[in-house]
Design brief:
Distance between the termini: 107 Å
Order of helices and strands: HEHEHEEHEEHHHHEEHEEEEEHH
Number of strands: 13
CATH architecture: Alpha-Beta Complex
Number of helices: 11
CATH topology: Spore Coat Polysaccharide Biosynthesis Protein SpsA, Chain A
Largest sheet: 4 strands, mixed
Shape: globular
Helix content: 25-40%
Length: 380
Amino acid sequence: MTKKAGPIAARHVIWSGRKLAIVVCIALSLVAIFRFQLQYDLSYAAPVYRPRFRVSHDIFNGRPKIAFLFLTRRDLPLDFLWGSFFENADVANFSIYVHSSPGFVLDESTSRSKFFYDRQLSNSIQVVWGESSMIAAERLLLEAALEDPANRRFVLLSDSCVPLHNFSYIYNYLMASPRSFVDSFVDGKEHRYNPKMSPIIPKDKWRKGSQWISLIRRHAEVIVDDEIIFSVFKTLCKRRPPLDTSKGKLNLKQQKQHNCIPDEHYVQTLFAMSGIEHELERRTLTYTQWNLSATKMEKKGWHPMTFGYANAGPQQIKEIKSINHIYYETEFRTEWCRTDLTSVPCFLFARKFSRGASMRLLSEGVVGPFDATAVLGTPP
């Protein structure tokens, strides 16, 4: 019995040693994984930017340009109005970029204005309202415009936007300010923040605002170079589908998800995360008339109203152009409109304008001389 116990005890010791080694290895692996995860979480607690090689915004000494960025469904229905607007400008003072549906080409057969010929992006994507593709398209426009170092101001516009002043006024207004114009405010009423965004996007950095922004070059670079916040929005910021009782339990599940509209939150939240809110005029330059008829008890959001010929007369336009402050109810904040400490009208552009309303703007001489041929003609 004594002679047999020796080898058994030895084998037992060896086996116990092996088990202990395995346990130690597993423990060390778990510690390593924990430390890696902790470093991962900390590294993603704030956006990480990887600036691309481009001409520095500090060394350009030429004539600055405004980059007009049009986000369209397909064509530009108000191209005749914008054509008159650009006709009165020095071509050295502006550039035009259009994001349209993939494959759509702007030429003499699809546009009334030569200023838009071949101005569409070649790498455009299919955009769905309320999805991250909307901000992806905005980023593509900014990326293309940043290729020209002369572009110093970047204005995002829809296909229903119109200018409220002539080119000279808008150019001087934008160039006089060293700030971006980004409508941004805290709104805790709609509960669009998704808790799963934490810790990458803390709730206290969540912002809302108008999609229609005007940026200085450095802020445009922040948007294009961002890789972290956009990824979070793409994954977690979804549009709640419309109610469809036929889907049964699936419909109920879909209605429980956060109704996050990316284009109303992405830029504002990104800038809050970047610590540059103090560099902004926290307002938009694009006027929108909202349908306020819905009561607070009704479960439907406000919608922008469309201007027709009848409500786009001189008096209505004058009233819009005379607005000099904006009140933000959720922050109890009044934003007095200024550029470089000088009081100015709040709005340079407006939406949503119909073709008839735009024709009236031209006939009233708001943006330039009236050209009946351009207005009434249609692309061949």
